[in-house]
């Protein structure tokens, strides 16, 4: 295991962060273990991040769940050339405290107000640095790639959900609540595989990047590892290019450079296929299956006279014991899913079929929430863009497992999104998916 504790916290530079983790890249003296790597550390809410944990002295800290999940599960679904290499590393409180002291000021203020590095963690993840090197790196969080099948939808939601994608409805709700939202971007354009629509998606993401001053989480741009804001957009141009005043010229060069790798990579198609094939019931159908399974098990027990009210999806049911999945559960699920040997019948509720559909839904949620990073050469407006080349030029990050405890929140959010959606004249999201025969 590489020993990060032998590096100085000043050797690491803040890159970026999400809701759960914060990432630093190695900038110290040449070192075979650390050159070209980033350190991904877990965060905790302010107030909890620095409260010493109650774990016993000598008790082994578990590895970050993302490592086993990627190596034992994700690599069975995604070609490894599109994944960063992940390695477990030891940490300690003193080293982390020094890192915080040196770098916390570089974090966005809003994030600092909410959370901080979890000083209680004794393990972190060292990963391939996908944004460093002498090039551009474009990070896109594509979100939901498909429209659900109408089969399991309620009358109230069917029309909206089969015409407008979840992201577009969610963005409208966020905007109505005064929250930041990429209202022009539709993921179904990005996933369409059609040049004109992919270009439209890129331009919408760019617009969201400009209006949010680079803070939107659907598009992040890095130049030689440095996070770029719209005001620094000259940094996207190749050495020797004249400064370009017109932002539309930079946008068009950016779109022209990005569209080809997005059309050529299998990554978007893989994500779209996994998201939709793992979420066949929609959260509404899954919730209905949960309720039907409870009543089927209750009637088998012949306790129908004293049946308690249904448990909310993901809650602790008196009728079956569905535990949070661990790695062996995921691998058994994947054995069935990949071989298609064991088919489950949603019309015939059993605790086994319910468990299958829940695990599938959780995996789909991971693919709905991950990001991709595309590496590009610096832009030269007015010339044909050169590609970085190779399958590794597009990689997927943030493939963390999702927890069963989120099912109830997902159901509630789904209802809120549908209830708040106000139809927009002429607006339809087109799902261009064509299964390969
Ligand atoms: O529900 P969504 O679609 O808003 O997704 C959440 C993300 O919001 P987004 O829409 O991408 O701005 C949200 O992203 P931010 O923290 O807002 O950048 C998280 O990724 C969240 O996942 P988790 O709770 O950290 O496991 C995501 O929650 P999950 O739905 O994946 O659980
Ligand atoms: N391997 C990597 N190389 C370079 N940068 C990375 C790498 N992994 C993550 N990052 C950067 O760190 C940020 C946070 O990482 P990540 O998306 O995994 O965090 P998260 O907290 O799980 O996000 P979310 O809020 O979506 O759950 C990313 O948006 C990206 O900019």
From TrEMBL:
It comes from the Eukaryota. Its EC number is 2.7.1.158. GO terms for molecular function: ATP binding; inositol-1,3,4,5,6-pentakisphosphate 2-kinase activity. The EXKPK motif is conserved in inositol-pentakisphosphate 2-kinases of both family 1 and 2. Gene3D superfamilies: Inositol-pentakisphosphate 2-kinase, N-lobe (3.30.200.110). Phosphorylates Ins(1,3,4,5,6)P5 at position 2 to form Ins(1,2,3,4,5,6)P6 (InsP6 or phytate). It catalyses: 1D-myo-inositol 1,3,4,5,6-pentakisphosphate + ATP = 1D-myo-inositol hexakisphosphate + ADP + H(+). One of its GO terms (cellular component) is nucleus. It is an enzyme of class 2 (transferase). Transmembrane segments: none annotated. Keywords: ATP-binding, Kinase, Nucleotide-binding, Transferase. It comes from Crepidotus variabilis. This is Inositol-pentakisphosphate 2-kinase. One of its GO terms (biological process) is inositol phosphate biosynthetic process. Pfam families: Ins_P5_2-kin (PF06090).
